[in-house]
Design a protein that fits this description.
Elements (H helix, E strand, L loop, with lengths): L4 E8 L5 E2 L3 H5 L10 H8 L3 E2 L13 H10 L13 E6 L9 H9 L5 E3 L6 H15 L5 E8 L11 H9 L8 H4 L8 E8 L8 E10 L8 E2 L2 E3 L5 E3 L5 H6 L6 E2 L1 H22 L9 E4 L7 H10 L13 H4 L6 H12 L7 E8 L4 E9 L1
Parallel strand pairs: 4-5, 4-6, 13-14
Antiparallel strand pairs: 1-7, 1-8, 2-3, 6-7, 8-15, 9-12, 10-11, 14-15
Helix pairs in contact: 3-4, 9-10
GO molecular function, one term: acyltransferase activity
Keywords: Acyltransferase, Transferase
Pfam family, one: ketoacyl-synt
């Protein structure tokens, strides 16, 4: 088995950063009214700026595959061209279409010759799943390099126009024309962007990150869906897919809007997350003292203290001074967030040779968790 190194990192964040005061104007009002949930959600998540692939006029500037292509282009120069990529592994939870796959569309924009592609789906863990596929391919010697990405273009799922027919339907039933909190909640949480890693079987340049191991855990066998799109959850927890609804209900119930069951989220995301973290650390026989930089993807600063307290309760406390996050500046970019954190940590100039980095990514869709342990070379 070969060693695997992250030798180059890149990000692409579309357009100018959008602050809290202008984000609703950019996304569009629902029923001409400001959201009652917006200030509550923003006060808890503490995100100050985020990025949208839509301009001031509401026009789309990039689709998801284009965002990803731009991030990959940032990996390339005269010494490593797009044509040199041997494998392309692209994770996302917001692909531009059902078919073709996301990686196929990215490859189409790259136009860099024949190569293997892989398209993990899901939510935040899809970016880590993309990384693991590339990691395993390089490690077993199938390829000498792989480009892995995480990306989201979620803004177009959250614009006010998405909910117009549902509002009209509610009014026709003489019900309050207010979007349910489980739909409105995520409008103030999510952002657009893409991150990319180049993996190679040898270190390169002044700084590379050796991937020591990766682990993934799912609790879907015991947990119902928490975050979902393209369906609606029934009273018994069963997730009924869009394909089983009459077509006229697709827009009347905003079936393709992304939704979050916040009650299930709060009760389980931290407990299951730390349980899986503890499992990964015990499996690989590492302790908190062997982690120099901890990069936890969290959707909101609301969970930060709770995560720390749960780690302490389960005996895997990682001191605050080892934590690194950039959620406040770039927003929650789902599968791309961990890529953006690694890029931000490298850009900070804090890393020293021999240090260890732990990447931690939760996914609330049905409670999955992914980890990676890196050495600075």
């Amino acid at each position: 088995m070969k060693n695997v190194y992250i030798t180059r990192v890149s990000k692409f964040l579309p357009n100018d950063p959008v602050d809290n005061d202008t984000m609703e104007k950019r996304l569009g009002f629902i029923n001409g009214k400001t959201s009652k949930a917006r200030r509550i959600v923003l006060r808890n998540n503490k995100i100050e700026t985020r990025y949208y692939a839509i301009d001031d006029n509401g026009d789309v500037t990039h689709n998801n595959a284009q965002l990803t292509k731009e991030a990959i282009s940032g990996l390339c120069d005269e010494s490593f061209k797009a044509e040199d990529i041997q494998m392309l592994s692209c994770g996302t939870s917001s692909a531009d279409q059902i078919l073709p796959s996301h990686a196929a569309m990215v490859h189409g924009f790259l136009k860099n010759g024949n190569l293997e592609i892989n398209s993990p789906t899901g939510a935040c863990c899809s970016g880590m799943n993309a990384l693991k596929y590339g990691y395993m391919a390089v490690k077993c010697g199938e390829v000498e390099n792989a480009v892995c990405t995480g990306s989201e273009r979620i803004s177009s799922w959250m614009t006010g126009t998405i909910f117009e027919e549902e509002i009209e339907h509610l009014e026709s039933l003489e019900e309050q024309p207010i979007i349910a909190f489980n739909k409105d909640f995520l409008r103030w949480m999510l952002s657009d962007g893409a991150g990319a890693f180049l993996l190679q079987d040898k270190p390169e340049g002044d700084l590379s990150l050796k991937i020591e191991w990766m682990e993934g855990y799912s609790f879907a066998h015991e947990m119902e869906a928490c975050m979902y799109a393209g369906g609606d959850k029934q009273d018994d927890g069963f997730l009924k897919p869009w394909s089983e609804f009459p077509t006229q209900m697709w827009s009347k119930q905003s079936l393709f809007a992304i939704k979050q069951d916040v009650k299930i989220l709060g009760e389980n995301i931290l407990v299951k997350g730390v349980e899986s973290l503890k499992n990964a650390m015990e499996k690989h026989n590492i302790t908190a003292s062997e982690i120099d930089h901890y990069l936890p993807h969290i959707s909101s600063y609301y969970f930060k203290d709770g995560l720390y307290n749960e780690m302490k309760a389960q005996g895997v406390e990682i001191p605050w001074e080892k934590w690194f996050m950039n959620l406040r500046q770039v927003g929650n970019v789902g599968s791309a967030s961990i890529y953006l954190m690694v890029e931000g940590l490298i850009a900070s100039g804090k890393l020293k040779k021999g240090e260890k980095i732990l990447l931690s990514v939760p996914e609330s869709s049905r409670f999955s968790f992914a980890y990676a342990y890196l050495t600075v070379c």
